[in-house]
Design brief:
Elements: E1 2-4, H1 11-14, E2 15-17, H2 31-40, H3 45-60, H4 97-106, H5 108-114, E3 118-123, E4 126-132, H6 134-138, E5 142-145, H7 146-152, H8 154-157, H9 171-179, E6 183-188, E7 198-203, E8 210-211, E9 214-219, E10 224-232, E11 240-242, E12 245-250, E13 255-264, E14 268-271, E15 273-278, E16 283-292, E17 295-298, E18 301-304, E19 310-319, E20 324-327, E21 330-333, E22 339-348, E23 353-362, E24 370-379, E25 385-394, E26 400-408, H10 412-420, H11 425-441, H12 446-460
Parallel strand pairs: 3-7, 6-9, 7-10, 8-11, 9-12, 10-13, 11-14, 12-15, 13-16, 14-17, 15-18, 16-19, 17-20, 18-21, 19-22, 20-23, 21-23, 22-24, 23-25, 24-26
Antiparallel strand pairs: 1-2, 3-4, 5-6
Protein name: Fe-S cluster assembly protein SufB
Organism: Candidatus Falkowbacteria bacterium HGW-Falkowbacteria-2
Pfam family, one: SufBD_N
Amino acid sequence: MSKKKKAIHDSLWDDYNESDYMRQSRLGLDVSLVRRISEDKAEPNWMLEKRLESLKLYEQMPLPTFGPDLSKLDLNNITYYAKAVKGQAETWDDVPADIKNTFDRLGIPKAEQEVLAGVGAQYESTMVYHSLKEEYKKKGVIFEDLDVALKKYPELVEPYFMKVMPASLHKFSALHGAVWSGGTFLYIPAGLKLKQPLQAYFRMNAKGMGQFEHTLIIVEKHAEAHYIEGCSAPRYGADSLHAGGVEIYVKEGARFRYSSVESWSKDAYNLNTKRAIVEKDAHMEWVGGNFGSNTTMLYPCSILVGEGASADHLGVAFAGDGQIQDTGAKVIHAAKNTSSTIVMKSISKGGGKSVYRGSVEIKPEADNAAVSVKCDALILDDKSVSDTIPAMKIDNATATIAHEASAGKISAEDLFYLRSRGLKEDEAAAMIVNGFIEPITKELPLEYSVEMNRMVELEMENSVG
């Protein structure tokens, strides 16, 4: 049965379910918990060894020394593993009623029926439902819970798992390697152009929860596909942690789009790692929106390793009262004739802080690389902050680099014009903000574009005037 907490902006954060299953879980992390996770999942020995190696690295590594201060995050007061269901359901009707109602409110079953090739739904540490339309199974598409794929397709999982985002990358990739659970495995066979997108939705429910799903995607030569992720959690007034991992391998001539809208509650730390390897003449596209969370640190990375490889990074972040949205992109050009485009938008209000933190690296061998970076910030009051922190390491003189950054406020003239046409002040401000982020939202699937516009409207209530 769903309870209602104190009314805040959006039902994504208002509603939560009873969590009796938490009695079987505990706070904190040690070797025994890592071994329990692996044993629960009946994993092969190589995965247990990888988890234990990651745990050692995690214990040795300091917190990141750049970006937001994470010292207030009590890592000993997080639940790292919680199993809300005994097993994965074959149909939505088989999902426990309270969990199913959560995903019903999010529109996931309806979207599966109408527009999706397949869907996955994770609740706490485990996938509760996963499906793929039969026509795509017959064409060789594999879309599974990663826990399942690890057993069914070890020859595909083991060569790629945590290769592009190794545990040694930083403290939270090491943590992820130790306690990852659930997530998605997606394999698109060579030459297949998948017309319908696939989607996974990740929901944290319990107080003080941590979620560490792992997404592993392999797009073979000349294939095309689109994958969508959504995330949310209720608000409790206690820290929660999301440190998922995304690895994408885009093979020669392939094209892949990864879209995500992250709507964590405002007491969550969102410390996600997303990285892609892009081979010859392949194209990788990241489209993302970040709302909610206490603190977000998220910088999707494209590593262009093949001649003619390219990447687009499009993102928008909204920072409100008490929030830090530290987001951006990283692109490494490691081959000839590669290109990348980064377009980032941020909105700050109520004392929130938005930061674009970007990194572009041109390797010596990357002749004729082309890079375009554009960062636009909209600041809605005198208390809010927006920073742009680009880093560029150019080791090849043939590179062409363009960087543009701007920051501004909503003009009084625009507000006056819209109010003269009958709009209330916050409605007018929301319309202007939605126009500002439209270059990003138009690239999202319709339901997510609508969701983002609605979030802007809710966030804008009483924000001006």
